[in-house]
Amino acid sequence: MTVEERPDPTVGEMHPQRWGDPAAAAPLSEAARGLVELAFGLEQRPPVAAPELPPPALGADLLDGLRALVGADHVHTDDATRRLRTRGKSTPDLLRARSGDLADAPDAVVRPDGPAQVAAVLAYAVERHFAVVPFGGGTSVTGGLAARREGYAGLVSLDLVRMKRLLALDETSMTATLEPGLRGPEAEQLLARHGLTLGHYPQSFEHATIGGFAATRSSGQASAGYGRFDAMVVGLTVATPRGPLVLGSAPAGAAGPDLRQLLLGSEGTLGVITSVTVRVRRAPTASAYEGWRWRSFADGVAAMRTLAQAGLLPTVLRLGDETETAINLAEPGAIGAAAGGAGGCLMVTGYEGEPATVRARRVAVTAVLEGLGGTPLGEEPGRSWRAGRFAAPYLRDAMLDVGVLVETLETATFWSRAPAVYDAVRSALTASLGEPTMVLCHVSHVYETGCSLYFTVATRQGERPVERWLAAKAAASDALLAAGATITHHHAVGTDHVPWLARELGPVGVGILRAVKAELDPTGILNPGVLVP
Amino acid sequence: MTVEERPDPTVGEMHPQRWGDPAAAAPLSEAARGLVELAFGLEQRPPVAAPELPPPALGADLLDGLRALVGADHVHTDDATRRLRTRGKSTPDLLRARSGDLADAPDAVVRPDGPAQVAAVLAYAVERHFAVVPFGGGTSVTGGLAARREGYAGLVSLDLVRMKRLLALDETSMTATLEPGLRGPEAEQLLARHGLTLGHYPQSFEHATIGGFAATRSSGQASAGYGRFDAMVVGLTVATPRGPLVLGSAPAGAAGPDLRQLLLGSEGTLGVITSVTVRVRRAPTASAYEGWRWRSFADGVAAMRTLAQAGLLPTVLRLGDETETAINLAEPGAIGAAAGGAGGCLMVTGYEGEPATVRARRVAVTAVLEGLGGTPLGEEPGRSWRAGRFAAPYLRDAMLDVGVLVETLETATFWSRAPAVYDAVRSALTASLGEPTMVLCHVSHVYETGCSLYFTVATRQGERPVERWLAAKAAASDALLAAGATITHHHAVGTDHVPWLARELGPVGVGILRAVKAELDPTGILNPGVLVP
């Protein structure tokens, strides 16, 4: 069925120096403030107000050319709009923005509507040799929006905000075709009108977009039940400088390499995703979330592995290590308060679906977890986690305000390597950052053969916090690669991870990426410096 | 854990003009013979005995060079060995071989042992510009072994028969690293020693190899329970003319495009797969197979869709259409005998696993199928299907012997398009082949969003059977592409499907394949003419 539906408006733009909805920002709770003071001391570090932008570099005729392609109302060069399209939301991004450095601002923000306008802008970019950075939600935490601009006539943020339609719905095949500019809640809103859901809830859900989910191989908090975003995609249309690419005539097949899997994760460097056809599910009519305590992280991880290898997963399955559990990061609003008080490691299990399915799955999972020595904590910890599931980035802003550097990094590996990867990353971070440093970890995505490891780090900002963090991140990245893990499970490559991607893929793998890039984007206008080593 | 285990010998070489184990060949049963006589008439068409081969084209010095690389005992130019490495096992392949045409025979069969020898042969192929055709089980049905030889010094069959080791086993992560030359039963034998299974049972299982499964994106009869082969692969090592490629440091990730998915399905055109790391499972300790009757194919397909979308699949799930059910193709040994006698469509459901899992899954699936109006037929039809699951290709030989052309083709599409694809392919085949023609169909691989459709065609050989079949196949391929399906769900591209692959991918997609090919195999020595348009 072809439809053409648009969502009602949801959240607005993010603050240029903070995460998320400016109205949702809040100072630290008393308990958290106490914890921070004890661990790191308090030092007020408010952001510089309304930092200056470099003047736009694009000439008037080039801007006129862009206006002719997308309409005069959809080419923006004002500071406010450009400021909101500058870099992403990693801690280095925020620290730079907070210190007043918005040097990476785009020269213009251009808003095409539909694949023809996207293609026209790309053709014009080739003709005039300006760089194009596709922009969805602006939530990159790996420098995915900080393209190189040397050698280009300028840098244009290709903002997909006008492309927010549900284009087609096939309730027999259970697929929906979505435009790339739809944010998570907008896509869910459109699907909910038909009783459907995508079930993709990354922490960036409220701001990130369908196009970004696909371009970065996003993975959501309910990945145990709904799968990674790349596993939901059955079709893609992509505008490339070589022309349009339309992929996906069957759920799976043997018609050569699966080129969908080459465009998924391409981070705007090979083309601009103009629509994504995703598998959808019936919206759940029941849910249950609960907590479990494990004596140790190793015990909890073993339980997750048992569930994954038995094909018996809840919809949400996550486990904090001893440190993360102790400071109660699963519940950002109550951080510093005791997490049930008994030590060990907190696991959250969540079930979504039909009432009968939720019940049956919960009974089966409960039997396994009890058999393995887990202690059920009832629904409260699950409910709390769920209520705060998108809140951690706001907490980071509040910590940055009082002089604490908070950042995350993540990886995935096979089960047998996970303990060594865990140790190696923690050691590298603490060795690089020095005391006082806290390293927290949780597992939130599992597979039959392995799992993700997600680390949260807190240390004093001190002098040169960006440089100190980048050194620590490099040490952690070296360590995890050496231990046999991937440089990223769901944060993508951006500019930050490029050197480690090159090592992970080796010279022949890098050669493949470069060859595909040269084929689809021969003049290199798409996100230069991102992804491709 | 690093291991180095080899299997005990299993089945021998296939007959050069027939499928499978020569000892397993059998004439038609009386019932089948009667059916064939009624439908098509009988006409003895025995194969030409020991057909002539063209003389090997490679010079003595080049052969000496190969001997220096892999050992003198592992370079073969005798007729018997070359004959067994000529083409694959499509009906046109067999008809040509039966008529005495072995013009596509390789000039030499070279058997490297290990990635270093494979790399050395590739380097030598670049230096001397001969074509290299990787050879596993020789079961291609799409011309995957019929590489182009014009412009090359000769054509070498790179037979991976010496590479049959289980290289590593990780029982924590449940992965095994297998060499490419292991046949299906050999791989299962090695895994069974550790209580494990791969669970991959394509019809070619007894002869096809691990490397071939990966290179062609094979899908097995138990795909509902164990998944497609490409979904089992977590790591690959590949020898390319540019050097080695090592992929897979985590089950899944966001480190750019998934290059594993570019090498899976690459059919020996981008490199030679030298090892495959696959997810394994505990060997099942219980199984149950049974039959169901559906009033119509549409009803049965709707039931399969319901199961797939409910996440409630048996290990094996297949459904014949009315014609396939009527002639009892699910049980090749009893073809022509009544299939339970009541018309409609036969579904086979099979369950494998722990006894409790088998029981619970069977109860749940049974409830759904009964609720949808399926009639349970008990275990006999399931047992019969299972007993004959690898037998159909032998039946084809027996049919070819009596003048009937039998061939298969397959596709996949989304559920909503399946009825139109089904109709379009049947119409195209019957219109092209004329009466008497029988077209049978079954669904044997399902996904949440769609399914495969597998057609079996029988018609008189008559004059010029190869040309008549190729015209019919072209008409069917045109029709299925027009109806929105893929040119192949699990038979791969080979040389036969290249023109349709080009249409399916479009010019930009073809450009990607060509660019990757040019990068990894710049002089085009690997399987020229296969896959890449």
TrEMBL record, chains A, B:
Per its UniProt record, the required cofactor names are: FAD
Q: Which residues form the FAD-binding PCMH-type domain?
A: 102-283
Q: What class of enzyme is it?
A: transferase
A single GO BP term for this record reads: lipid biosynthetic process
Query: To which species is this protein native?
Result: Nocardioides panaciterrulae
UniProt lists the family membership as follows:
Belongs to the FAD-binding oxidoreductase/transferase type 4 family.
This protein is called Alkyldihydroxyacetonephosphate synthase
Positions contributing to FAD binding: 134-140, 216-219, 267-273
GO: which molecular function terms?
alkylglycerone-phosphate synthase activity; FAD binding
Binding-site residues, substrate:
396
What keyword terms does UniProt attach to this protein?
FAD, Flavoprotein, Transferase
Q: Which Gene3D superfamilies match?
A: 3.30.300.330, 3.30.465.10, 3.30.70.3450, Vanillyl-alcohol Oxidase, Chain A, domain 4
Q: Which residues form the active site?
A: 454
Q: Where is this site: Important for enzyme activity?
A: 318
Region Disordered, residue ranges: 1-22
Cite the EC number. 2.5.1.26
